[in-house]
Amino acid sequence: MKYIPELRSALGDEKVLTDPAELYVYGADWSPRTSDEIRPPDVVVQPKTTRDVQRTIKVAYSHDVPVTAGGGLTGMLGGAVSLFGGIYIDTTTMNSIIEVDPKNQTVRVQAGATLQEVNDAVNPYGLWLPHQPESKWVSTVGAAIACDNDSTFGVRYGKILNCLLSAQLVTGTGEVLELGHRKAHFTSSGYKLKDLLAGSEGTLGVVTEATLKLEPIPETRLVEMLVFHRMGSAVDYLNRLLKAGICIEAAHINCKRRLNFYTHAYKTKHGKDPDIPAWAEALLAIAFAGDTKIISVQRDYALELAAEFEAETVKEREIIDSWWASKYTLEFEPFKQKWPDSQTTKKFGAADPGVPVGRLEEFYHKFVEVAEKHRLEIIGMNAYLEHPNSIGFSLSCAVFVDYRDADEVKRFRMFHDELSKLAIQFDGTMSTFMSDSHQKAPYMELEHGRSLKYMRDIKRLFDPKGIMNPGKKFPREEG
Amino acid sequence: MRTADLKEFEEELETCFGTSCGFCERGCPVYQAMKVRTLSMKGRNRTMLGLLKGKFEITPAVVQAAFECTLCGNCDRWCSLKNTEHTRAFREYLLKHGVEPMKEHSSLLASLKNYGNPWFQPRSARGKWLRGLDIPKAAPGKQEVLFFAGCTSAVMKPLVPSLAASAKLLKRAGVDFAVMGQDEPCCGSTLLRVGQADAFEKLEKENFERFKALGVKRIVTACPGCYTTLKESAEKLGSDIEVMHITQEIADLVKSGDLEVKRSSEKMTYHDPCHLGRLGGIFDEPREIVKAVSSFVEMPNHGYESRCCGAGAGLQSAFPKLSRELAAKKVDEAKGTGATTLVTCCPFCETQLRTVPGIKVVDLMELLLESTEVNCKKDASR
User: Fold this and answer.
1) B377 falls in which pLDDT band (50, 70, 90)?
2) What domains sit in chain B, N to C, each tagged with a CATH number?
3) What ipTM does this complex have?
4) What is the C-alpha to C-alpha distance for residues B252 and B248, in angstroms, rounded to an integer?
5) Which fold does the domain A3-92 belong to in CATH?
6) Contacts of B49 in chain A (CB under 8 A)
7) For B33, which residue in chain A has the nearest alpha carbon?
8) N- to C-terminal Cα distance for chain A?
9) Is the domain A345-434 a CATH 3.20.20.140 member?
């Protein structure tokens, strides 16, 4: 690999890793795969600046070498795994907080800062970044943009794109661009190229810096849980709350099975799953945040409206707290934690389709049917409301996958693909928080039709040699 | 389980690979300073798995992954796997597979073999701290409680006052105890942490045979490293000897008011030594003492979240630059609270943190003794 000495001279030896053990650890993310499917890159670079990224991509461009950038490597579909080897850019070494601007409620960061690091930096100003996936301690700003992952508070604040004002991108030719509208919240000028970055998976270039919009930290947060006879009733209830003018901060509809995946703290304490009524098919966890006086009224009225939908509130506070710990606070007992505890033999695997609001329950039954057909143990479904002040949800259709069993991993992928295609048939979309990666690449035409050609053209504009994360979204193009 | 072979952890390594949550990264002082993936626990677990599966040979990065860690246990706090044990077994595995001990660790081991302590001090130096203290030497059947000084405190001159303070306070607590003086052995912590499991197992067995022959029922120590090592050895060997840390003996005295202390208005913060806090489960007793004698303020990362000072598990000797960086971070965090004194109760932490200027580092027992003596002096002058 004759380009490696060039990388060393461009960046310095200490930023270029080639030891096979060091490469190996970058060879897999959180997605279900056997340990024989680890795909290490050929070289890892650890940049400190945008200039370092630019130098790296220029070397890659001149040698036609694939470039994959990654953050915390907690992606669930292999988006940041180097399918074709080449250079892996570890952006976690670019984690500086460049500017906190409390007056304008913005922060400028290097893209390798974790979402938690951003919040640690802005918290003293009474501000927060509300894009909050469960992986926030590890998930970086750049990876959140590239993957367009989920957020617990989507129903109020949306996802990362709703927070993203501007982003610096190093394209596939090594050109440095600033996309966005500085510190203005929106623009009517030009094409919104910044928006292309959400879910772009590093196929257009590497995001190196971002300006993010912050929100004031609410005074109080109240979390409640309700049980419903049907999943559809939970959707109708949420619609009713929005119609009533209630401001919801978080809303997650779990099927009955899925709740048990989120109550680790309860199980640690009581040694059993929480008791919920046998008739309950859906559980809605819902949060309200703001001044105590306001949200108490909103919460009380919301609970009052529940009667219209024959819903009941969950009275056992520990169930709710335990769910919230898993979803947001991450306050686990020392030496106990949900993820390793719940995945000692099989791991979490999911499909992430989106369906029209009126077809949630129908799709849920399809999910169960498809999982059973592929002989996969069902974890359950969670519908996260991810769009500001609307019912639009991400679906996490989760199963356990024995990643030591190549056949089961294969069956999981069939399950994932089948649900992705089914979602399109349902007038929905195949991805809502995991992006496409290579797994959904075969179905891009089904999802996007003739507009796919325009997407390919956009890709070529940013990355004429097709070196940026090849194989993701589209099959790799040579030359 | 403590000296289990790396192979025995293969299932746990698979679980980590399957989970890949990376929750261990945020609090890992070494990973946060270095940002090299093989130095985070998730990366280290993956490195071990790759090695066991024959994906690569033992390389310099593999050796670095094994030894560039303080075994502080912060990764364990956010996990259900025995990560610290994996790392310890990883070291042992490498040494058994042809990796030479790091030269800095070799010298510690040579000193342990020749002098019974890792600091190249003659055995006679171990009893020097006892001068003027009038503490009986342990003899068969003569005492139930043994005060175990530990190598570092006993032979490092600057630490002698803290050891003497512990002994004086133990006397004030009315505990009838003896010491082994220059015959006191090393607890074996150093051997265990640098991967010398066989030598460690031999030593711990010999040690507990000696304690038993002396008729010891309870060991009290002021060194957190000795505390966790001896406590775990006692459990592993099925010994009925109880192992206590000095703060457990003394905190009640302060709490009950039996030991009258003068409270200063100085702002002080407390650093949880990893072996006492996260690994030993003792958080409250030292805090009760600091609160009694000062205006106490907590650091942002405290208790289970406390960040390691960077001295442990051979890091200070083999990776001095990184070790100093971690100490500086810790001192910065302490200074950020507005405290002017950083209190701790571990000879390693004290020595390490004193290398960073900008804050006064004091030993908890010395601080407490001084607070009581100030009171005594005041009483005498009336």
Assistant:
1) very low
2) 6-96 (no CATH), 103-249 (3.40.50), 257-381 (3.40.50)
3) 0.94
4) 7
5) 3.30.43
6) 35
7) A93
8) 18
9) no
